Amino acid sequence: MKNQQADAVEMQSIYKYFDNFCALNAVNLKVRRGSIHALLGENGAGKTTLMNILYGLYRPDGGKILINGEPVEMKNPNVAIEHKIGMVHQHFKLVENFTVVQNIILGQEVVKAGCVLDLARARKQVMDLSKTYGLAVDPDAKIEDISVGMQQRVEILKALYRGVEILILDEPTAVLTPQEINELVNIMHNLTEDGKTIIIITHKLKEIKKSSEYCTIIRRGKYIDTVVVKSVSEQQLASMMVGREVSLVVAKAKADPGDIIFRIDNLTVEDNRKIERVKELSLYVKRGEIVGIAGIDGNGQKELVEAITCLTKVKAGKISINGAELQNTSPHYVVENGIATIHEDRQKRGLVLDFPVKYNLILENYNKPQFAGRSILKEPAIHQFAEDSIRRYDIRPEDCASEPARALSGGNQQKVIIARELSENPELLLAFQPTRGLDVGAIEFIHSALIKHRDSGHSILLISFELDEIMNVSDRICVLYDGRIVAEFLQGEVDENEIGLLMAGGERKNGI
Amino acid sequence: MGSKIAELLNKTATKIILAIVLGFMAGALALAVAGYDPGTSYSMMFTSIFSSPQNMIQVLILTMPNILTGLSVAFAFKTGLFNIGGEGQYIVGAIAAVMVGGVFNLPPVINVIVIMLAAFLAAGLYGALAGFLKAKFGIHEVITTIMLNWIALYLNNYLISLPGIGVKNTEYSFAIKQNAWTNVLNGWKTSPQGQAYLAAHPALSPILLGTDINYGIIIAIVVAVAVSFLLYRTTFGYQVRAVGLNKDAAEAAGIRVKKSIVMTMFIAGGLAGLAGALQMTGTLPHALVTLASQPGYGFNGITVALMANSSPIGCIFTALLLSALQFGGSTIQMNLGAPSEVVNIMIGVIVFFVAVASMFTMISERIKRRRVKIAD
């Protein structure tokens, strides 16, 4: 270890342009060796871009990078790897049908006799690493069979196996349960105790408070400040990130529920491997009410949503809205009956990424009379509608109507979906992970849109893995465990811990 | 200056033109390596086309089916399907055209419309069969359409072997009735007045009598415009493009994905079928011929669509280019002994560079970046 005093990473006045858009404008970052350094910013602020530059995936248009005090030209990721920098991406890059050990050693295989794979030795090396840092993994399980939390640990192990000293984690907690997040924080501390440096990209304030020593805030490509986390409050961090005062608590009036409009009776759904994922589940939603379904990922949420939207077949049971039975009909029929859906995976189910924003805004209504007459699209009306939606929902950039949806940031993509789904005033909005991967500003916006929809006399079924979101937004909370509703409360009746326990089912082993 | 170049490089048309230039350069290289002067060869290809009106018309006659099969492939591409079945659909269209046009005696103009509709319907259903197999059983359309090509070819040859259809001791079927031919001044040019007129005007006779000059290319251009309209201006086009770009999102939004796949293949098949029909009404012998191999227009269509980056209007121009190159290639072989395969090299290079058009975007980025650095 040469140059003991130098910062592990120093990025000076980094510029990056995409076309004429300035993604990074003279951004600085200094990361002390052996510290956990958070990089905070809204979606599209440039934090991932900055890290991609550090990892050699993008080339900067200006500025300097110093690693351990020495200037380095990050031409490509190989240079970064040479300098012992590792990155765990938000979307994992693992081979699904390889085992944990096979994934970890991929590209750096241990061989004996020149060419024979020595899996036993590799396995031992991996297990040693895993023990040293408390990264519990099942070395022989296939990636497709393990939880998301464990997949992430595999990614971290993969980096450690390559001997990294500086580890970049891109939105590491987006997909984790509360328990898994705590474990991750412990692991991060183990790593820094061993002298490793961690940069974590996030917009979750709680986790910054919990894990990091320093925090650099970026807003719209500009460097704002670097602070010592201990000395600032969550509220202050949020304001620096968004550039204005934001409320972290959702403001809403008490619900005034009417009649039951939507109900599910004894619903059973199998996944494509014929395993029952939803088991005789029953629930109802009243007019003017937000019902939240709390639960850990993988307890039947996906199948429940697909059953309601008729993207999958129902094995038994009934789903109805205003008396119309929906099960095993068609997605078209569900939409026609006044159910709008925000799908979990917005890029897969929600948007046609290569379509312009204006076309995405009419995906369900393109043949309604206001947008088409005699099978011919009314371009001016479509464009006008897009302009209105962009203004109403503050979709940025505001001249994006004819741009492909792909060009928007995640938060703005989500706003396009919300604008579309609420445009027909649906009786029931089915919102599945509506704020997944979004920043504080966008979350605030989306929550208030949900509440506004409720206040106009409509209903919402909110399914989320974020317990905070469920607790904050819902009027009534159902806890989903193993395909069943195991408990039901009104908002404020119980606290987070109690629901957390129910979500875990009591006897569920963590993370495995 | 740099910014203008960068902007220009980002336009699809510029990319395609650049790809064509690179194709010609690669062709020149190949000719030089083979020991022929590229300049002479290219000028011969060029002048041979423009040396006589007949030759220009030959190129246009060759262009017509290439436009339509190109549209067939491009339409399917836009909706996420790869239609390799142009050959078979062309043959089925030709069969339907000859069956209808050779049997029924309808008034002029109406007969051509009926023939085109029959061919579109027959070839469309033939294409839709592949679409149905994809939608219902998930069988990939590349596999089914290739197999359907051969079924169509042998169906054609079988029909000609039947006594009621094939003409005895020839390799032809019966022909389409003359009043349904789409040739220019059809009927008049073989009538006594026409023959007298043409004898008095010797400049016109090689064009009208020496070639199969016909209205097909005009119809093909109209169809290209119609396909463009269908894709970009109608709800149907919206629907199929949404399915092509993201099947999952389209499905979730309530678009009937399977129906859309079948309909897409119906239209793609129909377009290739029109090529077959217009070829039958427009060129000699106006009858089915026993085929030893695929006619080639279906595969030309793939090249046309790839060069045009699946733009329907673009297909008009790339079909013209392809046909001119194929025609010109045959003349250098005849006159210089230079290998006409050079044309295939050129076409291959063009398709390659259109496919990697994103490379030009990268160059454009780099120019811009350099400009930004200078500005700093």
TrEMBL record, chain A:
It is a peripheral membrane protein. Its main location: membrane. InterPro entries: AAA+_ATPase (IPR003593), ABC_carbohydrate_import_ATPase (IPR050107), ABC_transporter-like_ATP-bd (IPR003439), ABC_transporter-like_CS (IPR017871), P-loop_NTPase (IPR027417). GO terms for cellular component: plasma membrane. The keyword Ribosomal protein does not apply. Its EC number is 3.6.1.3. Keywords: ATP-binding, Cell membrane, Hydrolase, Membrane, Nucleotide-binding, Repeat, Translocase, Transport. It is found in: Cell membrane. One of its GO terms (molecular function) is ATP hydrolysis activity. Residues 9-245, 262-507 form the ABC transporter domain. The keyword ATP-binding applies. PANTHER family: CARBOHYDRATE TRANSPORT ATP-BINDING PROTEIN MG119-RELATED, GUANOSINE IMPORT ATP-BINDING PROTEIN NUPO. This is ABC transporter. The lineage of its organism: Bacteria, Bacillati, Bacillota, Clostridia, Eubacteriales.
From TrEMBL, chain B:
GO terms for cellular component: plasma membrane. The keyword Transmembrane applies. It comes from the Bacteria. It is found in: Cell membrane. InterPro entries: ABC_transp_permease. Keywords: Cell membrane, Membrane, Transmembrane, Transmembrane helix. GO terms for molecular function: transmembrane transporter activity. The chain crosses the membrane at residues 12-36, 56-77, 89-106, 112-133, 142-160, 213-232, 261-281, 287-308, 315-336, 342-363. The keyword Membrane applies. It is a multi-pass membrane protein. This is Branched-chain amino acid ABC transporter, permease protein.
